[in-house]
């Protein structure tokens, strides 16, 4: 794992991608920091971070697009997969290398609250927690980007699809407002959502029995809850899907100084899930 | 050493490898021979654990490549069809990385890299970016990566493709020298190469093993198809009379070639060498022979014969 981690890290700096990524993040943060904190004298650095959340959409695809797609294109994956190294080490090595690069701007961010402190009162706990939340959210996005990169042979397609997913995630809280509120609408939404998931499972396993049973289970549960206690279903969809609005944790810290610990744990689990899915995807390709 | 049992690989409906079984013994050079698309690369990819087989198993020194991948892969060095090179690294950096992947202890790594670079004649390009190397040199870096750590089994997929004749000879010599300490399996669609380097040939066609033996045995196997070719001046019925009087002839094919000359392909009975009898028969009738020669089938013909549509030679698979 260390060999892969070190190679990836070096390669990011050989190909300039690492420098560009770090420079881009730091420069953008710097501009916002100058405007909000220095110019307008607002003492919270967390506000800057929650405002520049959108840079992930551009920065993360640049970082993650090559991770697996390029290996596959250049056939270097043959070397990694035929070496006496287990797959999870390969995936984790690559992931940690990307996270390390993302950690560089985050470490630089640690300086900003101190600059505020030299000019007056700084709210260090809030600011440092927001940097932690920012880092964790970035880790989730990197895991998503890595997963999408493992799906394709072309870094460009990987970058564009990552951009699409991150854009969706950015607009998510807005989209979630349009979800239906009534019990029936929610039940229908959940069933449709389950159908999409089940179709995905069927694609992967080619086992229609499991797929059909899962779908049936969801339908029955919805119907039973709908009959017994319909109020449970009201707004269930927006509650469920609203969790995926990752930026909410950051906004919570910035605007209310509230830390959503559950949200942070959710981020970490989501990153773990996508790392796991990446491994599954690579395994699946070996067998088809 | 390597045991491949009833290997099957399906890509959707396409059957790439169809029930392949063979064993590989220590210290020999094995050649996979087959036309393009015969399933050579697929078989090698399965043997090295890059892709999974639909059915069947591969045992490397008793370790199943799928159940104990790390243990099995330790014994293999693999050069795929396209060398797996990171273009942005220098040759030395790349080999260091390959060594670390193969878990070569740090204190031995330096020494081994030097040895491998000497074998593949890469010392001078040690600090060059792989991106800037020519095809032949890239192939050598790929080869160096495969033999690094000196695994017991070295698998090379078309190692000489795209090289110039001088490089091909060098690589062949290198493979031969490797065989002193290692088992080498290489694939090629070039017959001359396999014939020159390998101790043992496995001919694969459409994912099936159609023949496997030493080069000499394969040629002998086909020698029953050897025939004698003579050229005699016309008229044809006179030649027919002479040949008809000889009992040792099984078949004779007549074809007119050039002016006033007839070429006859004669198959003797019971593999008997009938050249002298033919000569005497014609001499008695005072008909001069312009040409008399024995045509043996070459390995090329064996290869074509075996890999042609719908044909399967009856070889004894038990002596693989």
TrEMBL record, chain A:
The keyword Cell membrane applies. InterPro entries: ABC-2_transporter_component. Keywords: Cell membrane, Membrane, Transmembrane, Transmembrane helix. It comes from the Bacteria. The keyword Ubl conjugation does not apply. It is found in: Cell membrane. It is a multi-pass membrane protein. GO terms for cellular component: plasma membrane. One of its GO terms (molecular function) is ABC-type transporter activity. Its main location: membrane. The chain crosses the membrane at residues 12-38, 44-65, 95-116, 128-148, 155-172, 178-202, 209-233, 253-277. This is ABC transporter. It comes from Extibacter muris.
TrEMBL record, chain B:
InterPro entries: AAA+_ATPase (IPR003593), ABC_transporter-like_ATP-bd (IPR003439), P-loop_NTPase (IPR027417). One of its GO terms (molecular function) is ATP binding. Keywords: ATP-binding, Nucleotide-binding, Transport. It comes from the Bacteria. Pfam families: ABC_tran. The keyword Nucleotidyltransferase does not apply. Residues 2-231 form the ABC transporter domain. Transmembrane segments: none annotated. Belongs to the ABC transporter superfamily. PANTHER family: ABC TRANSPORTER, ATP-BINDING PROTEIN. This is ABC transporter ATP-binding protein.
């Amino acid at each position: 794992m260390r060999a892969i981690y070190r190679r990836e890290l070096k390669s990011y700096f050989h190909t300039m991608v690492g420098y560009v990524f770090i420079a881009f993040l730091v420069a953008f943060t710097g501009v916002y920091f100058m405007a909000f904190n220095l110019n307008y004298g607002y003492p919270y650095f967390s506000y800057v971070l929650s405002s520049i959340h959108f840079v992930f959409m551009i920065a993360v695809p640049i970082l993650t697009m090559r991770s697996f797609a390029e290996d596959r294109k250049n056939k270097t994956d043959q070397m990694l997969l035929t070496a006496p190294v287990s797959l999870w080490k390969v995936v984790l090595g690559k992931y940690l290398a990307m996270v390390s690069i993302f950690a560089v701007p985050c470490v630089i961010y640690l300086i900003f609250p101190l600059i505020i402190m030299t000019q007056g009162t700084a709210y260090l706990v809030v600011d440092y927690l927001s940097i932690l939340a920012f880092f964790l959210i970035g880790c989730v996005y990197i895991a998503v980007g890595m997963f999408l990169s493992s799906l394709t042979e072309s870094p460009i397609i990987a970058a564009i699809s990552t951009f699409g997913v991150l854009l969706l995630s950015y607009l998510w809280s807005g989209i979630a407002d349009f979800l239906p509120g009534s019990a029936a609408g929610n039940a229908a939404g959940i069933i449709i959502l389950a159908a999409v998931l089940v179709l995905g499972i069927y694609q992967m396993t080619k086992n229609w029995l499991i797929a059909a049973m899962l779908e049936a289970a969801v339908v029955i549960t919805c119907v039973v809850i709908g009959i017994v206690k319909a109020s449970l279903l009201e707004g269930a969809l927006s509650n469920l899907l609203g969790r995926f609005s990752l930026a909410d944790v950051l906004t919570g810290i910035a605007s209310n100084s509230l830390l959503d610990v559950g949200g942070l744990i959710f981020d970490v689990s989501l990153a773990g899930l996508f790392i796991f899915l990446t491994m599954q995807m690579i395994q699946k390709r070996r067998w088809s | 050493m390597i045991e491949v049992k009833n290997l099957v690989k399906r890509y959707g409906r396409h059957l790439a490898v169809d029930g392949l079984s063979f064993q590989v013994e220590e210290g020999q050079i094995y050649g996979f021979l087959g036309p393009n698309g015969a399933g050579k690369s697929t078989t090698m990819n399965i043997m090295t654990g890059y892709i999974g087989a639909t059915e069947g198993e591969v045992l490397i020194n008793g370790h199943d490549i799928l159940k104990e991948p790390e243990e099995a892969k330790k014994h293999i060095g693999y050069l795929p069809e396209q060398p797996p090179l990171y273009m942005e690294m220098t040759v030395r950096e790349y080999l260091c990385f390959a060594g670390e992947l193969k878990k070569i202890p740090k204190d031995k790594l330096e020494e081994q890299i030097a040895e491998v670079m000497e074998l593949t004649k890469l010392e001078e390009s040690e600090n060059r970016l792989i991106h800037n190397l020519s095809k032949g040199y890239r192939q050598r870096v790929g080869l160096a990566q495969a033999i690094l750590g000196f695994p017991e089994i070295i698998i090379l997929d078309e190692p000489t493709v795209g090289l110039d004749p001088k490089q091909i000879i060098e690589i062949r010599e290198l493979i031969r020298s490797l065989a002193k300490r290692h088992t080498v399996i290489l694939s090629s669609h070039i017959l001359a190469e396999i014939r020159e380097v390998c101790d043992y040939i496995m001919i694969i066609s459409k994912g099936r093993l159609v023949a496997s033996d030493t080069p000499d045995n394969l040629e002998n196997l086909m020698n029953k198809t050897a025939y004698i070719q003579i050229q005699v001046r016309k008229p044809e019925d006179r030649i027919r009379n002479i040949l008809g009087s000889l009992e040792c002839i099984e078949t004779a094919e007549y074809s007119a070639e050039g002016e006033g000359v007839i070429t006859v392909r004669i198959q003797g009975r019971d593999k008997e060498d009938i050249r002298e009898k033919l000569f005497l028969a014609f001499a008695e009738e005072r008909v001069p022979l312009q040409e008399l020669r024995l045509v043996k089938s070459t390995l090329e013909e064996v290869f074509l014969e075996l890999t042609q549509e719908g044909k399967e030679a009856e070889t004894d698979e038990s002596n693989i």
